[in-house]
Amino acid sequence: MDTSTISLVDTGFLLICTAFVILMTFGVAFFYGGLVRRKNIISMLMLSFISFALVTLQWTFFGYSLAFGPDFMGIIGGLENCGLLGVFADQSTRNLLIPDMVFMVFQLAFAAITLAIVTSALAERVKLSSFIIFGLLWTTLVYDPIAHWVWGNGWAATMGILDFAGGTVVHITAGFSALALVFVIRNRHGFTQYSMNPSNIPLTLIGGALLWFGWFGFNAGSAYAINEIAVNAFVVTNISAAAGSLSWMTASWIYGKPGSLSMISGTIAGLGAITPAAGFVGPIAAFCIGTLAGLICYYALMFRLKQGWDESLDAWAIHGVGGFFGTLCLGIFASVTIGGVAGIIEGSTTQFGLQFLGAGIITLYAIIATYGIAFFVDILFGLRVSEDEEYVGLDLSQHGETTDM
Q1: How far apart (Å, rounded) are the C-alpha atoms in residues 266 and 240?
Q2: Which domains does the chain have, with CATH numbers?
Q3: Which long-range contacts (CB under 8 A, 24 or more apart) does 129-133 make?
Q4: Distance of CA 17 to the CA centre of its chain
């Protein structure tokens, strides 16, 4: 095959970035694992590991084809690439200087971490068997179509709705899906009645560190080449993360003490918010996005608690709200000199309108479709464990293991 259009440098860069994003899924495992009670740490870790394994096979057999196969009416990809048929390690068909196989595995890592983020809403009460069924259906019916709409030449891409690295596809989709799940699986027994404090904050901080590190591959890799856009994405990602860390910590400090969990939650909020805009905004805009994201996501978490929603580990408040906010910020701060698109600050309201439309439709679809899938799985198989199993803990009742072994 003709390899003259393949850049070995860019291919190597994307393979490294892919490894970074894969590491992020295990970062989610540690981040979430430390936030649950001791009797559920292994279970929480398992959900992320299983997410990666499950999505790897789903993506190989038909998920990639649904998301990135030939477009069908702007809604879904065709089945021509099932089993990775026609996806080669030495051929590029996407106007990129990397092989299709590298593009495929980079996108696989995005799909896997999105399902792992959703497990926030299932903490300490989901049956492993039911999660596997839910995860397969959710990735196929929610993630794959949205990825196609935005990145696979679907209706959103055709309209000009932009998402550099996953503000809509990953963060809105995962965060609002987690919120929808809560209303099907319901609160943990005893929620708001007795303490459910995190059991291992250092483990969560390690997970947060892995996420901060991996996010450079997540965002810079989405340039698909070593160029000025990748460098810009790398720099603004770090700035937004730092700003989010300090703004969330400061907000929580006003009402109490500057806890480490508040700091690392702000980091993830800043990272999620900059993701859709990383290839379109500069450093000062990134500072504004990260600072505001830390504050907005903090108050979203406070709102969630006030409502009594047991979206246990706050994927909605951090990823969903942060991703929605960041998607709108693209339409506000986008710079022609960086990404070729003008936002409100540069005198154009067009992109902001498109971003709002795209974020709104994807949010509604994620909520409705996820609720429907979860309701279906719950009716047929039961999503959650029994009250006795929940009391004993999922480590023992689902896996026959404990952290004391």
Answers
A1: 10
A2: 8-399 (1.10.3430.10)
A3: 129/381, 130/377, 130/378, 130/381, 130/382, 130/383, 130/384, 131/47, 131/50, 131/383, 132/50, 132/54, 133/377, 133/381
A4: 16
Q: Could you tell me the pLDDT band of residue 3, with boundaries at 50, 70 and 90?
A: low
The dihedral built from the CA positions of residue 211, 9, 236 and 148, taken in this order, carries a sign that is negative
According to DSSP, the residues that pair with 126 across neighbouring strands are 384
Mean pLDDT of 268-284: 98
Q: Quickly tell me which residue has 């492993």 as its tokens.
A: 128
Sequence-distant (≥ 6) Cβ neighbours of residue 247 within 8 angstroms: 266, 270, 290, 291, 292, 293, 294, 295, 298
Q: Which two tokens stand for residue 44?
A: 């929480």
For residue 332, give the 3-state DSSP assignment.
helix
Tell me the H-state helices in 192-314: 201-220, 228-255, 260-274, 283-307
Which residue from 40, 371, 319 is spatially nearest to 175, judged by alpha carbons? 319
* 280: Cβ contacts below 8 Å, ≥ 6 apart: 162, 164, 330, 333, 334, 335, 338, 339, 341, 343
Q: For the segment 47-96, what is each residue's pLDDT rounded down to a tens digit?
A: 999 999 999 999 999 999 999 999 999 999 999 999 999 999 989 988 89
pLDDT at residue 1, as a whole number:
43
- Report the distance separating Cα 289 and Cα 166, nearest Å: 16
- State how far the Cα of 157 lies from the Cα of 298, in Å rounded to an integer: 31
- Output phi, psi for 72, to 5 deg: -120, 100
Q: What are phi and psi of 77, to 5 degrees?
A: -85, 160
Residue 248 CA to residue 121 CA, distance in Å, equals 22
Q: Pull the structure tokens for residue 309.
A: 């929603």
Residue 213 and residue 2: Cα distance in Å, rounded? 35
Rg (CA), the chain: 20
C-alpha 359/C-alpha 356 separation (Å) is 5
Q: 37 phi and psi, to 5 degrees?
A: -70, 155
Closest Cα to residue 108, out of 167, 150, 61, 46? 61
Place of tokens 């003259």: 4
